[in-house]
Amino acid sequence: MRFSPAGRIAESSGSLLVAAVLLLGTAAGAAGCVRLPGPSLGPVSSPGAGPDGSASRTASPTTSTSATLARRWAPALGAPWQIQLSGTVDTSAAVPTYDVDGFDTPAATVSRLRAAGRHAICYLNAGSWEDWRPDAGRYPASVLGRSNGWPGERWVDIRRLDVLGPVLDARLRMCRSKGFEAVDPDNVDGYTNRSGFPLTAADQLAFNRWVAGRAHSYGLSVGLKNDLDQVPDLVDAFDFAVNEQCFEYDECEALAPFTRAGKAVLQIEYAGDLSRICPAARKASLSTLLKRTSLTAWRRAC
Length: 302
Hints:
Largest sheet: 9 strands, mixed
CATH topology of the domain at 80-275: TIM Barrel
CATH class of the domain at 80-275: Alpha Beta
Distance between the termini: 24 Å
Strand order of the largest sheet: 4-5-6-10-11-12-13-14-15
Oligomer: single chain
Radius of gyration: 18 Å
Shape: globular
CATH architecture of the domain at 80-275: Alpha-Beta Barrel
Structural class: alpha/beta
Number of strands: 15
Number of helices: 6
């Protein structure tokens, strides 16, 4: 399973509190670990909802490398959406935003969504290795850690941007070339798990900010996946959030910095009664779905 509550494995519902805010120039950590500089992240304007439920953000001059990056699409606060990571993508859901697998979804499907006035988010695994991906051989054994709880997946050493940076750059280029407008990088909370590496909160902040900056450099908006403890430090760097199970774990309040900033929270529950969940989700401006863990086209929405 690719989009999953893997970050919940070996993680209590009251995860670690971030001890300090990282300065991006902090020393590289353990010996042999190399950090690569990413583009600087400037402020992003408050979104204005478009007629299709989308929101446009204007990038700061410090984040734009060309005129094409002047504006980035991002999902609108509270707008409906769909996520499907298993099987052939069913494009019939009448929602403005689809989150689909970056590798498995062909450009033709993205084009069909765009032609119908919809938007596509490119799901990628940023903090874990998957043995079935076509670029799996680009990950040396030295950066592969423990299993994240799903078959064929292992945490990676996020401090090693000398190795991971080129791989993730190639993935982001793939997303852009297929016509995606945003990216959903998964497993960006390895520091709270038994990853096999001595990762710190500072390491995670550096990696997540690097991912956000690189996505922006390709004209893609980017969502913060889970990593709730670091939301206050990362909300300015990310354009929206993607969350699993905040109602189940009583953690939804941690996402409030995004909604207060007018940024969407695309939220998933795998269990529970929507008649109870949806009133709270609407009150909190969360775009909540009930999904099966297989993440097929099946959905129930608030």
